[in-house]
């Protein structure tokens, strides 16, 4: 048992304002090369000269002969009697040098033209890329404190990973620091199997592991408080959950599937959702905050925080499609215990290890299908339809009465009425609209108290 100690941190209601969120996941496809050399083309070479055909590259007036061929001479009369001339070696060397020079010029021209063509088609020869890639400055990676990244950085150090075992099997989930002197809150179903003779270990964001004591727990609200031998912790602030509105941005922090330090975002998608978890005597009734922030197995017990980084709820359940036997993953419908309920129950568990919940002292007929919810018409299996001397009896409720609304909020299912009552505190007054024999009237009920 822990003593009451210092009160839990409480937030001043934050200013409410929507914040848009957009997400995208682009993909890119590859592309084939866009260039191809025409069939039969040979880069850097002249086409062969066909004998008897005009040479398209021959100098003007050459008559189509190859530019390097010696001119033809037609023998004349004077030639027949001319004295043979001796070849001039100097002239022959000059001619050979001219030929070599022309060949070199042609090769140089081919290289230049080929290089220009390659540059135009393939980009060869363009300026080289800088030797180093651009690097962002430190200012480019700063995050505003009210951004998702800024809020996550502030919340993660106060979010813990919880492991429980009874010696043969184990379970895991998330928790959050309640007080600087070592108190942590999580869901009861996370540590329930270790409640008798098991072991609970809390792992902090810095990797330190601490064995934890179970201070108190309640299945009715699915909450449990743990105590570790560590001080100087940074507690998260519990906001006023009555001040939240549908559409407010929220961030869920936890360890889904054992992946510690996971952050997801969304909005509050509904309020006052009647959620019933568990079964039989261990049923949990939650007047829940609904969110589309992704919550998966392992997120249980972790904080749901608002745009100011204050806790508006403790993540505890997810909806599943009809026919699914057990929770398999988020479908965009997650539920959290409102922070006002967490504060009230945690303070009780720290003070005396037990929690109380309010009652009206009537039993409801789950077979009834008409408007509202009906009180049993008679006692069943030793259970009174209306507890003698209880809050409902004192207010004038009788067996068979139909309760139409609570504090002006219509109810159409027994669970709706139960969670609406359990969201209050013992001693609170509620207004019930009741129908009996066609007559409707309002009665005021002072809620009673039971201990979980």
UniProtKB/TrEMBL annotation:
The entry's family comment says: Belongs to the peptidase S1C family.
> What is the designated name of this protein?
PDZ domain-containing protein
Looking up Pfam families in the UniProt record yields: PDZ_2, Trypsin_2
Q: What PANTHER family does the record tag this protein with?
A: PEPTIDASE S12, PROTEASE DO-LIKE 8, CHLOROPLASTIC
Region of interest called Disordered, as start-end residue ranges on this chain: 1-71
Sorted alphabetically, the Gene Ontology BP terms of this entry are:
proteolysis
Tell me what organism the protein belongs to: Georgenia yuyongxinii
Segments forming domain PDZ: 361-438
Which UniProt keywords are present, listed alphabetically? Hydrolase, Membrane, Protease, Transmembrane, Transmembrane helix
Residue ranges crossing the lipid bilayer per the database entry: 93-116
- Name the domain of life: Bacteria
Q: Which InterPro entries match?
A: Chloro_Bact_Ser_Proteases, PDZ, PDZ_sf, Peptidase_S1_PA, Peptidase_S1_PA_chymotrypsin, Peptidase_S1C
